[in-house]
Amino acid sequence: MPKRYPSTIEGKLSLAIQAYSSGQVKSLYAAARSYRVPYSSLYTRYHGTPSRSALSKIERCR
What we know:
Blueprint: H1 7-22, H2 28-35, H3 39-46, H4 57-60
């Protein structure tokens, strides 16, 4: 089963994505290090995988 991240990690992931998208950091790896979040989580979230909390109950049960 995948890890469940606390809301603080979710917030940091969002901030890291915003920093990368706006050009404040040059790479996803640099954003992950700056915001101290797992690179793999940041990568998948940036490329469109929604957070587990964002999925509806029906989608989780599939």
